[in-house]
């Protein structure tokens, strides 16, 4: 064998290892594995909100407690928010929990932004999905009521 065949074998082995790692990570994520959250950073601002689906396919986001409408998403708008909500709703259904409990959006001292479902204990780092997606939830922290 010449040295070229060892190089090809090495490259094949390397790519095989990378492929195995990708398959393992994908399988773990599809099975619901969530990596452990880093230590909590102090909360700078937070707001509890609840989401309501309307008969027209819209989603309305209310401030919990005051029931002030913060955001109205027409059908087809807010795909990131809708996707996150579907994941949280699936968790609630799997635990036979209703949709009434509020969610908590929090901005942390370290710049993090999280969404937490107190009824299931699930919490996600919204910035892991990129700044544009995180901004869709960040605006809810500062939003005033929608004018009727």
Number of helices: 3
Mean pLDDT: 85
Taking the sheet with the most strands, its summary is: 6 strands, antiparallel
Write out the strand line-up for the largest beta sheet, numbering strands in chain order: 3-2-1-4-5-6
Task: Give the helix/strand class.
Answer: alpha+beta
- Overall 3D geometry? elongated
Low-confidence stretches: none
Distance N to C terminus: 79 Å
Structure report:
This protein is of the alpha+beta class. It has 3 helices and 6 strands, in the order H-E-E-E-H-E-E-E-H. The protein folds into 2 domains: 1-33; 43-142, no CATH class. The radius of gyration is 21 Å and the shape is elongated. Strands 3-2-1-4-5-6 form a 6-stranded antiparallel beta sheet, with helices on one face. It has helices spanning 3-30, 79-94, 131-142; strands at residues 43-53, 59-63, 69-73, 103-108, 113-117, 122-125.
